[in-house]
Structures are given as structure tokens and as C-alpha cells.
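[audit] Reproducing an earlier prediction to check determinism. Same input, same settings, fresh worker. If the C-alpha cells differ from the archived copy the diff job will pick it up downstream; this log only records the rerun itself.
[audit] input (381 residues):
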Amino acid sequence: MANRINLNQTSYHGAGAIEEIANEAKAHGFNKAFVCSDPDLIKFHVTSKVTDILDKNGLEYEVYSDIKPNPTIENVQHGVQAFKNSGADYLIAIGGGSSMDTSKAIGIIIANPEFEDVRSLEGVAPTKNPCVPIIAVPTTAGTAAEVTINYVITDVERKRKFVCVDPHDMPIIAIIDPEMMSSMPKGLTASTGMDALTHAIEGYTTKAAWEMTDMFHLKAIELISKSLRGAVDNTKEGREGMALGQYIAGMGFSNVGLGIAHSMAHTLGAVYDTPHGVACAMMLPIVMEYNQECTGEKYREIARAMGVQSVDAMSQEEYRKAAIEAVKKLSADVGIPTKLDAIKEENLQFLAESAHADACAPGNPKDASVEDLKELFRKIM
């Protein structure tokens, strides 16, 4: 079996990296950008950091701001029509996962109009054409959507999120500029950072993991563990470490998948509108406890990457517990809750069935039945 790696054609990293957007747009011969960015980023003049560069270089663009958290089928369809009306020939996605996911879905449907219903993109859709070119500029350090082949859309009617996995959706250019992330509030920094840690740990332990992705994931765990507390306090070093760490995690998990912490988080987001990173952070240590017997010596390396001392002197039971406790401590230190009051006993069957059907579930190192998932959901009630 061959292991496949998909990455951006080009990525730029470091303070001031956004200046490269104009150079890339000119080098590719693009004419007009469809700039996808959410209303808050426009209001707080984050989007303008990019549009000012376009203005300075005489590059034409149109701003599209109908971007909502947990983008829906209707959001995507509205965006597709707006792109058609704009006369644009490429996208610039500025924001977190919502802007990125909306842009990917728009770009895919414009290039593959037979999928305009959106629902047919779920899973590994047989698209034929690469999406409209995307330049991705993340403003959160968490989703790594700028380097992944995944995006997530919410089906409001059916109260579920669905994952789309498609190498055709990857942005051609990623601009990882920590200065674009400096305006993130503490709560969002914490939740997106824990999403990134969940990517790294689930990617490291998924059934499809292999040596190259293990390398990415362990470095990501190390960087995130060292940097997240500082990023929440808005230190320069914390922001820079998280910007790089979350991207490296994306380089890995995009190519090997995730597990049930993510499938359960998707369900919580669809039903209760729980912020994705918060849902991931609540589920991660619980799922780690569930999975531990199927992870060999990997929890020792997770514990080591998270800064736990003397792991080589520990028994298997001790280092597995140490890894889980390190995750719990980091989550608590950045203010993530451990319980979700909205969940009721009568909700559990639907939640578990939805999580079981999610595209991330098959990658989990330990198979989980609907009954298993019900018991795991109970732990955050």
C-alpha cells in the first residue's frame, strides 16, 4: 500500500508573510479576488491588512462577508452565486475554519457544478476538477484548513455536520502570518489551540498513521504544548509557536485522518452549536482513555512531547496516564470547560448514531459502537 502526502504548492511562514499575497497573485496572472472573510474580522480591521496590500498593488477584489460559524449548505450556495456574480477568478480566504471551509466548498462547486446541492460532497466525492485557486490566510491557530484536504459543512435540516475529503480543495498558497492571529480573543485562542492539539494526537494515533506523519504530529504536539498558554496570554513567542504548530499538525492529519474525538465534536457542534475546539478539548482526554489499549508505546511519546519528565522510567500504565493528565492540565490551564449541560439522556442515541456515521470515526485506533459512543458522551454530561 502506498502512503500519499498532499501539501500546498507553496506556503509562507512568519511575521509579515501576508506581503507575499500580491506577488503570488501577480505571478499566477490572477485578475480579481473573491475575498471571503467574516464580519468580525472586517469590523476589527483584520481583513483590511490583506485588502490594503491588494489596494497598494492595484489588484482588484470583492469582499464577501456572509461567513457564519459552522457554515451551512445555504451559506455555501449563497456564496457560489455571489462568486459567479463577482467575475472573480480566485479566492482569498481570511479567517478561521469557517472562512476556509466556505471558500473550499465554493471553489469546488464552481469548478464542479454537478455538486451544487452540496450534500453530495460528503465523504470522498468524485470531483474531477481542482477547485478555483485559493490563497488561504488563517487568523486562528487551530483548524489548519489552509493545508488540509478537508472541510466541514453543517446540514441544519438534518442536525448534523458532514466532512468532505477532497485533494482538489487544497489551497494552492498558504500564508501563515502570526501577526494575523494577534487579535484573537483568549477564549478563541484557547479553543482553536486545543483543536490543533486534538488534530496532532488523533493523527498520531489513527489507524493510518505512518512514519512521516508521526514526525509531523509529534513536533506539533511539542510546539502546541509549549506555546498555547503563551498564545492565550498573547505573547509573541506563543503566537508564533502556535501558528507553526497548528500548521504542522495539519500537514499530518490531513493525510491520515482523525478519530472519534472529532466525530463526536462534529456532532456536538451540529446539535448544540458548541464551538468546535471546545468540543474537541472536552472529548480528547475521554477518548484517549478509551483508546489507550490500542496505542502501543505512542502515549509515552505524547507525554514526552508535552514535557512530562522521566517517561522512560515509567511503566506503560504510568506513561499512558501521564499523557492523558498532561492534556487535561493544558485544557484546564487555558480555561476549557469539561461538561456540557445541554446534553440530556434522551439526546444520547441521536448523538451517538451521528458520531458513528461521521467520516472521522473509522480512523479511530479502537473501533467504537453506538453504545460505546453513548457512554463516552455521558462523561461530559
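[audit] rerun output stored. Observation attached for the diff report: The first helix runs from residue 20 to 27.
[audit] end
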